[in-house]
Amino acid sequence: MSVVLEAKHINKYFRKPVLFHVLKDINFQIKKGEFVSIMGKSGCGKSTLLYILSTMDTDYEGQLLLNDNLITGQTRDHLSFIRNKHIGFVFQFHYLLSEFSVLENVMLPAKKLAEKTHEEIEFDAYQKLKMLNIEHLAKKRASRVSGGEKQRVAIARALINNPSIIMGDEPTGNLDSHNAENVFNIFKQLSDEKGLSLLIVTHDEDFANKTDRIIQMGDGEIIV
Amino acid sequence: MTNWKVILNIAKTHLLTKIKQTSTAALGVTFGIGAYITLVCFMTGLNAMLDDLILNQTPHIHIYNEIEPSENQPITLYDDLKNSFNVVHSIKPKLTQKKIHNALPIISYLEDNQDVYGALPQVKTQIFYMAGSIELGGNLTGINPVDEARLFNMGDYIVEGSAEALQNSDNGILLGIGIAKKMSLKVGDRVQISPINGGVFPLKIVGFYQSGISDIDAIQSFTNIKTVQRILGKAKNYITDINVKLYDIEQAMPMSKKIEKQFNLTAIDIKTANAQFETGTTIRNLITYAVSITLLIVAGFGIYNILNMLIYEKMNDIAILKATGFSGKDVQLIFMSQAMIIGFVGGVLGLLVGFGLVSIIDTIPFQTEALPTVETYPINLNPLFFVIGFSFAMLSTFLAGYLPSKKAKKIDPVQIIRGQ
Questions:
Q1: Contact at 8 Å (CB) between A160 and A128?
Q2: Prediction pTM value
């Protein structure tokens, strides 16, 4: 199994208000098709770790590799490109562009990547929406769909560029149990059928227990 | 690699969903540019009219023989008194002739010069207009009417008759309108004039002259050079003044200096003669630009404000765009293009509004005794003003958009996403 994401000796400090060692020598790997969850108490640094892994936070020590390529120390523009092409995001609070239609939201990262024509992108977007059973919402404004639907749209958007890995920051944290179940099933399906790697930060023990592997964190260190 | 289509699409959506704010910002620019175009066209139109009033009929270089005391009095030639303090009382002007010596060769010499558009001879003299027993003092200038009309826009100031009519008549006179009023004369009548050295000559009125300056119109008349020479009993080479028009007005000063040296005559250039007009024009332009720029700066602050607000509102969008792979530069371009679109739309509308207002002003009647050729308010529709106005709209919106968009570029998506 090839390694999709690898963290080597990641250390991070918060400098304000006082120097604080948030992450202490984090090492782990995520293999292709693996569904991994990160658990831990509030403030243990799991979200901080996720944002380092997402390439959005560059203020850390250590090395980060994506598909065996070193990411650490790349320019911001190149990091943007990596996020665009290789990483999909799902957040706790949906984060759709509320003024655009559902379809446009899904298409946006692919348009930015600009590797396909507009028609191909639109076709892909419909495919993803269909897969998530929300194609009937395509033309609706993003602000007009329900919370569970929004999260599914966000997943569709994360999938549009066929990324190497999907990262989620408590993607079910803001959903009722029915919708949370639904989102989990989608993730599970993506992992099993499409061989997609997933890395999900969660508080939800039921959710985590159903994943392939749980990374337990405490006080900035990996416990298990 | 910048994907303009996506960026412009996002910018467009942002602008259209906030159409009220967008139009407020664009209207600010429209107002600024419209006011600028109106002001500058109207003001420069007025300026040009006022300048033309004097400068058009003024030669670039006026050459004549000045009556003045000689620089070197006899005592300065006396070496023994060289180191003394000499006082000479009752200095009289040097006795010289009024005419320019060798005027005709000088004219042909000047006309051969590359910089010279034309050099015209004139004969100026004092005369009396005779109305029965009343004598009115005045000036009579002998000219080549058609050439004067060509070089110095003489035709603009002939209210009745024409330059050609004067050229073709051997004893015609173009009478100042003020004199005609005083003496109740009309075209076709005869007026008797008398030169200072005596004699009475009847001349036929072929037209009226109105400069717009009533003091001049009350004394000044024109006739052919030949006619004046005949009245004065002088030869054909009797020329008192030479008026020179140049291709480039900036050459007037050096050229006049050169002529003075070369021919030992007095040569006054247009700038020296009309320095006060230059000052007036400069100050009026200054005021116009100060007001316009103030308007545009106010409009610029409006755009700055609205974009700033927009960026605060769109923090989430910015974070999500960055998280999904848009670079800081892309985000900056999104907001910059919004500013530029506002500037472009507002600017174009402003040009149209300005053009409309100017066109309306251009049709408002404006009649004044002083300006015979002006019927409506003068407007200077110079395409350059439209170019400047549009460039300024783009520049000010660029600056107004730059700072907020720079802020958007620097927003850290992690902070926004985690802050929720």
A1: yes
A2: 0.69
